[in-house]
Design brief:
Elements: H1 6-11, E1 17-22, E2 27-32, H2 36-45, E3 47-49, E4 55-58, H3 63-71, E5 72-73, H4 86-90, H5 94-108, H6 112-121
Antiparallel strand pairs: 1-2, 2-5, 3-4
Helix pairs in contact: 3-5
Length: 133
């Protein structure tokens, strides 16, 4: 098996998306899984650090709206909601946000089972050991 080059990795279209019917809103929305950078920013927004830099508490305020603001995109795959518009999105029906949030979590690898699977799936090859026959 040939190793991927930097160019091949950066050119790969690896983000998953899904169109979801939302009858409560009268149509369909598109959810795009977050990039690594977006996912890190989302996770960081949920943590409140103390003066010494340690985690003081979790900030779950508008957690679903923050997630969906990063994942709801238009046909052009551009975000529909900016980080400044999270409050407006958070004012929508909580059941709808929860339903869409579960899909966004799956697409972004944020579910507990996704993280556990990723920990167990990562395979490494020892340096200098050939895996070919």
């Amino acid at each position: 098996m040939a190793l991927l080059s930097k160019e091949q990795i950066t050119a790969a279209d690896d983000r998953q998306w899904e169109d979801v019917d939302v009858p409560e809103w009268g149509g369909t929305v598109r959810l795009l899984g977050m990039s690594g950078t977006e996912r890190n920013a989302y996770q960081a927004s949920l943590v409140v650090l103390g003066p010494n830099g340690s985690v003081q508490r979790m900030n779950m305020q508008d957690q679903l709206a923050k997630l969906l603001a990063k994942c709801l995109v238009g046909e052009d795959f551009e975000r529909l909601f900016s980080d400044k518009e999270v409050k407006a999105l958070g004012a929508k029906n909580g059941a709808v946000l929860e339903r869409l949030g579960k899909i966004a979590q799956r697409l972004s690898g944020l579910r507990k089972e996704d993280m556990e699977a990723a920990e167990g799936k990562s395979e490494t090859t020892a340096s200098g050991v050939s895996t070919t026959d």
